[in-house]
Amino acid sequence: MRFRMDWRSVTFDWNRARAFLVTAEEGSLSAAARALGMAQPTLGRQVSALEEELGLALFERTGRGLELTPSGLELIDHVRAMGQAATRVSLAASGQSQEIAGRVSITASEIYAAFLLPPAIAELRDTAPGLEIEIVASNAVTDLRRREADIAIRNTEPKDPALIGQRIGFDTGWFYAAESYVARHGTPAGLDDLGGHSFIAMDSPDAMIAALAHFDITLSRDMLAIRSDNHLVHWELARQGVAIGIGPDFLGAASPGMQRLLPGHGPIRYPVWLVAHREVKSSRRIRLVWDILQHHLRTRLTGN
Q1: Which of 27, 145, 149, 165 could anchor a disulfide with 107, C-beta 3.0 to 4.6 Å?
Q2: Range of the domain at 279
């Protein structure tokens, strides 16, 4: 059955929604007005009109800027998706998507590059076939200032003022073991029951021991006799039942035969940031890639 849109339920003006979106992304009315090329009072009236239309307060003033209210936070992802869709419609209608060409380099961790990026790249190929996409799969922090990549997916907020970042959401990860491992070694009953088990180390064993200690998880060096800096190798070792590994929950849930351990504990939670040089605002090809990556990552990590 084909979905039929209830047009009577759409009760707001898109121009006002766009004013809300750009204000949220820029952090102030003045910056948003510059980005849209319109007068600040006009933009302010559009935002106020949307608040009145919806019966919601979307912003609260903090110092010299604006922050989203809980109602604004609840709406922003939906409006952002509308903005991305509107951009793609405009590009398709004008034929500009065919004209967007050139190379764009995306860097992400090995796990994200292998399991999160492919659907986004498929959409990019359909939307702008003239783009040349390079994926740099690396767990190291790539230097965007030196143009080692155009866009990065990171788990830390950018500190360099030459870069801009958008927090997409939060990822979670925890201990996973193959059913074959559990059949041989049993299932640990709790954090105090890890002593008889083997784990796969990331980076150095000492670094992993120290990192897990922050979560009140105690491992010893003799429990970390296997090590791989490559996260794909790490996951495959765990998947084949060699030892217990650590992986993101979106991957564990999609991997048949993998069991999430200690369900009463965890998970480890960490942010996911989309980062680029500030030219993302002036480069059509980089902005298009940014928007599509943002949509796919947010959908995969948050389910929205």
Answers
A1: 149
A2: 101-167+272-302
